[in-house]
Design goal:
With 260 residues, this protein is α/β, with parallel strands linked by helices. Helices cover 41% and strands 15% of the residues. The chain binds phosphoenolpyruvate.
Length: 260
C-alpha cells in the first residue's frame, strides 16, 4: 500500500498570528480524524515553531518549504536540515518550481539537498514539472525524465522509501488551470516507470507521487481518484481551512471514517 499524503505549501504567507489562527481552525475540524492519510502543513520558517506547538496530539505533520544542501556553517540566511528536525519537521519540500525559477535551483542542487535531507532523517517532497512551452513543444516526457534522473541521482533504494515526488506542471501552479486527471496520471505513470527502471518495480510501486497545480475542492476528487496519484501538494487552497479540509476529505476513501 502506498502512503497517501496531502501537503499544504503556504509559500511566503501567514505570520505567526495568522499561522496560529489557521492551525487552530484545522485542529478543531480534525479532532476526530482517524485515517492513514498523512496531512502535512508547510508554513514559512518563521512560523514553524508556533505551528509545532499547536499541532501536538493532532494528525497534522510539519514540513518546511526548503533547506540548505550544506550541513552547517558560514552560509548566511540558510537553514539546515538539523534545524528543521529539531523544530519538529518531518518533511521538506525541495526543488519547487518557484525555487527553480526565482532562485535558479538546478537538479544537481536539489539532488544534493535530497541527500542532505535523508542524512537528517527528513522526508523530502521533491518537485518536478514542465513549463507551458515545454508541454506545447511535446517534450514533457523528456523534461520529466531528465529531472527525475537528476534529482534522484545516487540515492539508495532505502532512501526512495523515504521520498515523495510531486509532479507540478509549472503552467498549473497558481494559475487556476489544473492538469486534467488524465494528463496528470500519465506523467505519474511515467515517473513510476522511471523509478522502476532506476531501482525496482517494488520500489516504484511503493513511491508516493503527489500532483500539484491549482488543486481545489472542485477538482480534487477527480485528480485523487486516478490510479497513480497518491495525494496532492496544495498551494493557494491550503491557506484557508475550509478549502484545505475539503481536499483532505477528497483524499480519503469514501468507505473510511470521515471527520467533522
Ligand atoms: C504549489 O505551490 O505547490 C502549488 C501547487 O500551488 P497552487 O495549488 O496554488 O497552484
Amino acid at each position: 500500500m502506498r502512503r497517501k499524503l496531502i501537503a499544504g505549501n503556504w509559500k511566503m504567507n501567514k505570520d505567526i498570528h495568522e499561522t496560529a489562527e489557521l492551525v487552530n481552525e484545522l485542529k478543531e475540524h480534525l479532532k476526530d480524524f482517524r485515517n492513514d492519510l498523512h496531512i502535512v502543513i508547510c508554513p514559512p520558517f518563521t512560523s514553524l515553531v508556533v505551528a509545532r506547538g499547536l499541532i501536538k496530539d493532532t494528525p497534522l505533520k510539519l514540513g518546511a518549504q526548503n533547506m540548505s544542501d550544506k550541513e552547517d556553517g558560514a552560509y548566511t540566511g540558510e537553514i539546515s536540515g538539523r534545524m528543521l528536525v529539531t523544530i519538529g519537521c518531518e518533511y521538506v519540500i525541495l526543488g519547487h518550481s518557484e525555487r527553480r525559477q526565482y532562485f535558479k535551483e538546478t537538479n544537481e542542487l536539489i539532488n544534493a539537498k535530497a541527500h542532505r535531507a535523508h542524512a537528517f532523517g527528513l522526508t523530502p517532497i521533491i518537485c518536478v514539472g514542465e513549463t507551458l512551452e515545454e508541454r506545447e513543444a511535446s517534450v514533457t516526457d523528456k523534461i520529466i525524465t531528465t529531472q527525475i534522473k537528476g534529482v534522484l541521482a545516487q540515492l539508495a533504494s532505502v532512501d526512495l522509501d523515504r521520498c515523495v515526488i510531486a509532479y507540478e506542471p509549472v503552467w498549473a501552479i497558481g494559475t487556476g488551470r489544473n492538469a486534467t486527471p488524465d494528463q496528470a496520471n500519465q506523467v505519474h505513470r511515467l515517473i513510476r516507470k522511471l523509478v522502476g527502471q532506476m531501482y525496482s518495480w517494488a520500489v516504484a510501486e511503493r513511491l508516493t507521487i503527489l500532483y500539484g497545480g491549482s488543486v481545489n475542492p472542485s477538482n480534487a476528487l477527480d485528480l485523487l481518484s486516478q490510479s497513480d496519484i497518491d495525494g496532492a501538494l496544495v498551494g493557494g487552497a491550503s491557506l484557508k481551512a475550509d478549502s484545505f479540509l475539503s481536499i483532505i476529505r477528497a483524499g480519503i476513501e469514501p468507505s473510511q471514517k470521515v471527520f467533522n
